[in-house]
Amino acid sequence: MTHRFWAALSSPALAALDPAAAIAILPVAAVEQHGPHLPLGTDTFISQGYIDRILPLLRPDMTALFLPIQAVGKSDEHQSFTGTLTLSPETALRAWTEIGDAVARAGIRRLVLLNTHGGNVPVMDLVSRTLRARHKMLAVNVSMHRFGYPEGLFAPQERAHGIHGGDIETSLMLAFRPDLVDMAQARDFAPWSLAMERDFAQLRANHPVGFGWLSEDLSPAGAMGDARPASAEKGAAAADFGARAFVALLEDVAAFDLSRFDARPEGEDPS
Question: How many CB atoms lie within 10 A of CB 41?
Fold first, then answer.
């Protein structure tokens, strides 16, 4: 029987796996406000929904182990809204790095951080570099939305500006947990980032040139994007697309030659 969850294995069973072939997957998410129509746990429910779609796509002989979802992430940009839970950047960095340390103690040097919350990205970058330096570990960061979506599924404006509780996240939640979505509260939560494209030559909220913002700076409602066109059908198509892309990434991670990390700077004495 193939186990896919780290916590479901006994210690001897984990020790019996070939660590050189194993990939650990650390899902990092959030519990934070997502406007009036979505639950606080949206990013965590989306993470679980993706995992459920990824599992049946994995090769039976691939040793891919999901670590427990880290439901509370770095969400200080949403802390003005009631119900948001957040770790400080320092706490998240330490916690996720120490989980990576534990993975390395098991002899596993391939780790993928599966992310469903934009605020976690800066911390993930530090975690992955630290684990590379500390353990010669291939630590890969992937935010699921960066895989993109099927052509034409979401409007270009929504893909650029609907970053929080808009059509994309609402559709995913309608596919994963429709019982928690209140479409009667869904509306066009047009973010300030749209006006910034008109009012500024270069300054943007996120990219290519961004600034440090809080959620209320971009939208008093906390959500950003047009949730009205959301549907479970679009959410399912987006989820299937992302799940397939993630599995392809795991194949790349499995094929990566870890001996590349044994290289020394040119001209340096290896002794």
Answer: 21
What are the DSSP calls for 174-209, one per residue? HHH-GGG--GGG--EE--HHHHHHHH-SS--SSSSS
Q: Which two tokens stand for residue 201?
A: 């030559």
Distance CA 264, CA 260 (A): 10
Burial of 211: CB neighbours in 10 Å, binned 0-12, 13-18, 19+: exposed
Residue 145: CB atoms within 10 Å: 19
10 Å CB burial of residue 106 (0-12, 13-18, 19+) is middle
- Compute the Cα dihedral for 256, 257, 261, 267 and give only its sign: negative
* Three-class secondary structure of residue 162 per DSSP: coil
SS3 9: coil
The answer for residues whose C-beta is within 8 angstroms of residue 234's C-beta and 6 or more apart is 153, 154, 167, 171, 175
Q: Could you tell me the pLDDT band of residue 80, with boundaries at 50, 70 and 90?
A: very high
Tokens 């899902």 sit on residue: 27
Of the chain, the end-to-end C-alpha distance in Å amounts to 45
Tell me the pLDDT tens digit for each residue of 145-194: 999 999 999 999 999 899 999 999 999 999 999 999 999 999 999 988 88
Tokens of 10: 């006994």
> pTM of the entire structure?
0.95
Q: Domains for the chain: give ranges and CATH numbers.
A: 6-260 (3.40.50.10310)
Would you call the peptide bond into 156 cis, given omega within 30 degrees of 0 as the criterion? no
Q: What is the DSSP letter of 210?
A: -
Give CA–CA dist 256/205, Å, rounded.
Answer: 35
